Amino acid sequence: MDLDDKIRRGHRAKAILDDAVFKEAVAHIDAELWRLFRETPPTDTEALGKISQAQYFHTKYLAFFKSAMFDGEQAKLEADWKKKRRGLSDVVTAIRKRVA
Hints:
Elements: H1 3-18, H2 20-39, H3 45-99
């Protein structure tokens, strides 16, 4: 995946994370998982294990989106740095031509 792909992917991930409906869904799932946890007797280890697994996967997909967004931000910084470096290289080449 090249830098432009990473940047686009990061923008898409940010758009998803910033989406009001997505935020509402995340809050709803969080609340539901905590409600289930609070209402489950401590002796029901099977149910608590399933709730724990659901919470784990819920946090995993959120982490995936955040990671994609971060990767896109890093790719943007790298692309900007490379562009500036190319610009400086062009300036140095032009100066060398004038001096020569």
